[in-house]
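Incident log, support desk, overnight shift.

02:14 A customer reports that sequence design results differ from what the structure should imply. Their input is reproduced verbatim below. On-call engineer (initials T.W.) acknowledged and began investigating.
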């Protein structure tokens, strides 16, 4: 049995990349956008207080995740939802509290993400998520995830607001780009690791665009459902999928059966 298969069977700490993975990830980033707005604006907590509180909760969730030493669906996806919220808040703080332009924010997070990947690869000789079985690799993984959320928030807001394309058009654009990446992967045999990370980054602005479309008032280009209803709707859907994934994980061999791996 190869080292990669051994790692996946014994102790891979993140999920396989399946249809369910992408569905829940997309809903998590959508909820991250609306929940951040709800906490900071609707509850009147403000960006600074919300950021500090949610960052503290995220740190606790990551300690919980690292303590598992394996993939546990409800623990892992709790961390993803929280890091989605914090990633959104990081970008919002830079733009709204510190006056950093979205263009600058997008460039800065692109550079930070590229640096993370460079150091990760130099240290581990791989960026594959199928071999996250050490604490160091998992630390690189979660740092990359944080920067993808912050970058995706900046890029999505840049296209929707600064370029004034609106939420629906922005969502369609990013959806089309992700579709093109999928075609390149399946038809042109694009590198799986590159395809995964590109799609992972772009699902953030895709989800955020549709989250804003549902939650924002009609006068701002949204459908006016509000952040509470939108957040609760996606939270319920996420909980349902996590329960399904938890049950599926108990009835199949880890990483080998019961999954339909995409990347």
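02:41 Re-run completed on a clean worker. Output:
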């Amino acid at each position: 049995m190869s080292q990669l298969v051994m790692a996946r069977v014994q102790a891979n700490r993140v999920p396989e990349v399946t249809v369910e993975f992408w569905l829940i990830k997309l809903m998590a980033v959508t909820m991250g956008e609306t929940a951040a707005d709800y906490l900071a604006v609707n509850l009147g907590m403000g960006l600074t207080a919300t950021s500090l509180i949610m960052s503290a909760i995220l740190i606790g969730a990551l300690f919980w995740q690292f303590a598992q030493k394996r993939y546990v669906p409800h623990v892992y996806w709790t961390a993803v939802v929280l890091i989605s919220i914090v990633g959104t808040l990081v970008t919002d703080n830079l733009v709204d509290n510190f006056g950093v332009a979205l263009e600058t924010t997008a460039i800065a997070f692109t550079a930070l993400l590229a640096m993370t990947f460079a150091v990760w690869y130099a240290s581990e000789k791989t960026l594959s998520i199928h071999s996250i079985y050490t604490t160091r690799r998992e630390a690189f993984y979660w740092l990359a995830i944080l920067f993808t959320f912050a970058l995706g928030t900046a890029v999505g807001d840049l296209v929707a607001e600064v370029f004034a394309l609106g939420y629906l058009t922005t969502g369609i654009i990013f959806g089309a780009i992700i579709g093109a990446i999928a075609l390149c992967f399946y038809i042109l045999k694009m590198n799986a690791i590159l395809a995964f990370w590109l799609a992972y980054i772009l699902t953030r602005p895709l989800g955020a665009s549709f989250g804003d479309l549902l939650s924002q008032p009609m006068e701002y280009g949204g459908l006016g459902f509000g952040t509470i209803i939108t957040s609760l709707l996606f939270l319920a859907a996420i909980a349902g999928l996590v329960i399904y994934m938890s049950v599926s994980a108990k009835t199949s061999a880890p990483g080998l059966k019961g999954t339909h791996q995409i990347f």
